[in-house]
Amino acid sequence: MEFLRLTPTYILLFIIFWSLSLWFFWRFLDWQYSMKRFSKSFNYRFAKQSFVFRNISFVIWSILLLIALLWPLWQIWNQSKWASSNVIFLVDLSKSMDAIDAKHDDLNISRLDKAKMLISDFVAKHKENTYALVWFAWDSIIISPFTWDTDQFLTYVSWLNSNIIPLGWSDLNKALNFSLSLIWSDRNWNVLLFSNWPEDLTENADTDSITKKYSKIEYKIFSIWVWTQKWSYIPAGVNFLGNPTFKLYNWEKVITKQNSDELIKIANSFDWKYMNWTESSDIENINSDLLSIKTWLKEIERKSNDIWYYFILGAFMFFVLWYFTPYKKRLWKK
After folding, report:
1. What is the spatial distance between Cα 313 and Cα 318, in angstroms, rounded to a whole number?
2. b/e string for 99-128 if b means 16 or more Cβ within 10 A?
3. From CA 168, how far away is CA 248, in angstroms rounded?
4. Inter-helix orientation angle 48-79/7-39, to 10°
5. Rounded mean pLDDT, 156-163
6. CA nearest 104: which of 88, 116, 93?
7. Are residues 191 and 51 in the same domain?
8. Taking every annotated instance into account, which residue ranges of this chain make up the domain VWFA (predicted)?
9. Contact, 157 vs 90, CB < 8 A?
10. Per residue in 109-155, pLDDT tens?
11. Where residue 195 sits, what CATH number does that domain have?
């Protein structure tokens, strides 16, 4: 859970608090012993009313200090179930995504099927978010506007196939502009891009125009690259003999191997978070890095700190009252 991020600090404060509480409790017992001793002395007499007031002050400042230390944790724990993010899944449907070089349980599957599985697993685990689905190749299509209905959304995901958009290749600039145009500026947004990024686009990615155009919108893009380090051909179907055929360009088979260094370079130029689909732990941890979750945590922490100061101030005031309130008075000899 997200509130566990702040736990180490507050656990330390909690330990300090109870250490102080045990020390003051020991002092309290010592004062009770002193009360009996002073009550028998002809020079001192126990002031019962002051002693009661002193004990009440001790209890109040202890409770206020405890609340001050645990308040941020309670706030985050109580409201974490309401934290959500707005996520746009931007999925590449170019023919190269049909290359069967991804893995699932030691079975070979296509890159597109792998992307669909990653999306379905993510949505099923984080139903608190709102999701939108955009397909792209040479053109871009929004198939699902933002929705909380995860069941219907997963139905849309299951429809994904490379034949939906007839034109091949991929125009990522157009896809990003289309996706970000769905965003309004008063919210926090995240774009999860699933693509193998054709090599011919690595030099044509117009990062400057996109970042300038949407500079007033708070968004974050995660790049989940579905690609392979092996040489592979793009399947196009089967011939009349039942043998597989492959996509041709100038009568040559199109090779789908990608350059990971170039992909990372492009991701860095956009200030994206680069991920490889083979690293399942990275995919599973995306939710904790989504923009609105981080913003929400900072806001909760800020509000908690504001209230925290008042509790600390109140605890200090009652501590002063407790410390300086006498529980005995001196009887001077005549």
Report:
1. 9
2. bbbbeeeeeeebbbbbbbebbeebbeebee
3. 12
4. 170
5. 81
6. 116
7. no
8. 87-189
9. no
10. 887 888 888 888 888 888 878 888 888 777 777 777 778 888 888 88
11. 3.40.50.410
Q: How many residues does the chain have?
A: 334
Residues 284 and 174 in one domain: yes
Residues 110, 217, single domain; the answer is yes
What is the residue-wise DSSP string for 249-290? Answer: ETTEEPB----HHHHHHHHHHTT-EEEETT-HHHHHTHHHH-
Element at 30 (helix H, strand E): helix 7-39
Both 245 and 191 in a single domain?
yes
d(CA 47, CA 34) in angstroms, rounded, equals 12
DSSP string for 181-238: TT--TTSEEEEEEEE---GGGTTT--HHHHHHHTTTSEEEEEEEE---SS--B-EEEE
What mean pLDDT is predicted for residues 261-282?
Answer: 62
Q: Are residues 314 and 283 in the same domain?
A: no
* Range(s) of the domain holding residue 125: 88-289
* One domain, residues 95 and 69: no
Do 268 and 300 have their domain in common?
no
Whether the CB-CB separation of 313 and 23 falls below 8 Å is answered with: no
